[in-house]
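Example record used in the benchmark description.
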Amino acid sequence: MKMFARTLALVAMFLLPSAAGADDLHRDDQSPGDAEQIARGKASYAMCVGCHGPEGEGQIGVGPRINSANYLATASNELLQRTVTEGRVGTNMIAWGPILQDSGIADVVAFVRSWQSTPGIELNEAPLTGDIATGDKLYGDICATCHGRNGAGYSELGSGTGVGRAAFLSQATDGFLRAIIKNGKDNTPMRPFDENSPVAVANLTDEEIDSIIMYLRKSAW
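Model output (structure tokens):
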């Protein structure tokens, strides 16, 4: 009996989270599509080229880069599907749901996912810990230059996307936002903001990053 209990304990060491708060860390679904899905998605992606470019490189002021190692390692299939389905109100990104339907959208996501070159990262979806007033100041001092004073991005002649729009914030989880702010988005002006990064635009602590997210969510429009 003792041997059985010891065996269960050893199994638990490998199967259960190893530290408090581990339940808040998870990797969202980033399952790749099969070859047929990818081929169909590539054909449908022709409708996206005008804004996002033939290789997903994007155009500043028109559509963001989506062929980005950091972005694809962070974004879940659900985020990509919702973005394509619902679009982003107030931007060039229309809702493709009525046109492509669920199966067509899944194909496009499979094609975009085929660009992924690095493994998915664990997202921290723990509750935010920060201060809205601090986030307001940090956003104004650091983020507004690219994303616009009101977070409208291109609509405010910024070089960054509309991170203050409710349409975007309703699709992006806190874990996604934390990871993108901390790690940046390669091959774009969005550099890292991690306090430990030697190439960071500003060395923000985890709490300061949370503060910015809290401010964006409170002031979303």
